């Protein structure tokens, strides 16, 4: 089975479909994320009490480029971690750990949404809500489970008989 990263590198025109961004954008993102990753590792090394010599210990199972690719594939396609593990030839636990590590770095590297930027300032938040309320927004998302309402009529509104659960 071909690794998703190998597929993207051999067919750069398919990057947008697989990970949601162009190949050039992917390379730029990898560069920024690796820089942040190295800074994070250097900070850990400065504060660490070293028992094992530098360079010792287990080597990473996947490269940082593969880790970022794994993260982007998860965000774009939403496969289960067992499938991600199969795609990248690692365990599902390692896929989960890799995703959680790189998503934090990507949150630092990439700009926040407008809502996230102003949510702590209530006045700016209300102004942004007013501005956004003037537009019609389209959201493409899958069905997501919600907390079951207490009122029976509200329960009926959110019940999916097809999936036998509340949405």
Protein model, in words:
Strands 1-2 form a two-stranded antiparallel ribbon. The protein is extended, with a radius of gyration of 21 Å. By secondary structure, it is mostly helical. The chain folds into 2 domains: about 5-110, no CATH class; about 115-165, no CATH class. The protein contains 9 helices and 2 strands.
Describe, in short, the structure shown:
The protein has nine helices and two strands, in the order αααααααααββ.
Task: Give the helices and strands, then pairings.
Blueprint: H1 4-10, H2 15-19, H3 23-46, H4 64-77, H5 81-88, H6 92-109, H7 114-118, H8 122-133, H9 152-158, E1 159-160, E2 165-166
Antiparallel strand pairs: 1-2
Helix pairs in contact: 3-4, 3-6, 4-6, 5-6
Low-confidence stretches are none
Count of separate DSSP helical elements? 9
Range of helix content? 55-70%
Number of domains: 2
Number of strands: 2
- Please give the radius of gyration in angstroms: 21 Å
- Largest β-sheet summary: 2 strands, antiparallel
Kindly state the mean pLDDT as a whole number?
84
The shape, in one word, is extended
Ends apart, CA distance between termini = 36 Å
